[in-house]
Design goal:
seven-stranded mixed β-sheet, alpha/beta, Class_I_gatase-like, 22% strand, 30% helix, Carboxypeptidase_A_C_sf, six-stranded mixed β-sheet, 316 residues
Length: 316
């Protein structure tokens, strides 16, 4: 990636990318300017309305403003709709969103919606309500706001944006030998997934559940794992893929209890049900992240020390 200050003007090659702030307020506006420069250098025309930098308390504008931003994005001619950041806020909008409007843009006009973190709530609701495929991947301020970008993150996102995403792979030393399962790939942020249990916004998927989180102590992560078990969600899956769980602090009181202990506990609970738990997925609140098609039928298999996810119908 060239220095953003020396990037020449490029003729747009990848269409219009619209920035939306549907949740938390953008905390560092200069990062958004850096993100725009990066995305333009990658061949996108970048469009951002006034609401993108709005702030009401911790939110990127009022609920009505953020709802309108989502609907306006769906009505726009954008090829890609990218979230600026996560935070919290989409849960407040779920009852008011026009899902058919968004689904028509995604299914009918092949609009690509991408993000992670709090965006998971909208992804799950869209999948549950309409079956629309979105993408779990980078966000503008969070991922494209650094001066130097991560090559894997960029390449994976561009594969998805260009419609050439067919498979991803990652090193995994705890996948069972002979692993070969298929199902709908779904999930995202663990807190968002568990918050929608018992609501009409959680898909009844029996597939490949992927999870990540940030700022959650391992005991909190385990508590959410147990909620997925008590609700019968985890047992229905063909496999559970764990991404990165970051930015937590252990204490002396933990006495050796850590994230590995929480994962071992989940694996023990799911073993009688034949559901493998895999770790190492490059996804979460980290620099290096894959872009994953949320809601696509996926084939997962182990080859040597790597696990591969194949997406036969991932084109947006």
């Amino acid at each position: 990636m060239p220095d953003i200050e020396s990037v020449p003007d490029l003729k747009p090659r990848r269409g219009l990318l619209r920035l939306v702030s549907p949740a938390g307020a953008v905390q560092e506006p200069p990062r958004l300017e850096v993100a725009k420069a990066h995305l333009q250098a990658l061949g996108f025309r970048v469009q951002a309305g006034a609401q993108v930098l709005a702030r009401v308390q911790r939110f990127a504008g009022t609920d009505a403003q953020r709802l309108r931003a989502l609907h306006d994005a769906a009505r726009s001619k954008a090829d890609v709709v990218m979230m600026t950041r996560g935070g919290y806020g989409l849960s407040r909008l779920l009852q008011a969103i026009d899902y058919e409007l968004l689904a028509e843009a995604i299914k009918g006009r092949k609009q690509m919606w991408v993000g992670h973190s709090d965006f998971t709530a909208l992804q799950l609701a869209l999948l549950a309500k309409t079956g629309a495929v979105t993408f779990s991947g980078p966000m503008a301020s969070y991922d494209f706001g650094d001066k130097k970008l991560d090559d894997i993150t960029v390449d994976s996102f561009l594969d998805a944006a260009d419609g050439t995403l067919e498979a991803v792979g990652f090193a995994c030393d705890d996948a069972p030998r002979g692993l070969d399962v298929e199902g709908v790939l779904w999930g995202g942020n663990l807190a968002m997934v568990t918050s929608l249990i018992g609501t009409p916004y959680l898909p009844r998927a029996k597939g490949v559940l992927f999870l990540e989180d940030v700022n959650e102590h391992p005991y909190s992560v385990e508590r959410m794992f147990s909620q997925l078990l008590h609700a019968g969600v985890a047992q229905r899956q063909k496999a559970v893929l764990l991404g990165q769980f970051t930015a937590y602090k252990l204490s002396a009181h933990d006495a050796g209890y850590d994230l590995n202990a929480a994962v071992d506990w989940l694996r023990a609970q799911l073993k009688p049900h034949g559901v493998p738990v895999l770790t190492g997925l490059p996804f979460g609140h980290v620099r290096t992240k894959l872009t994953l098609p949320h809601g696509v039928h996926t084939h997962v298999l182990r080859d040597g020390q790597e696990v591969f996810l194949f997406f036969p119908h991932a084109q947006h």
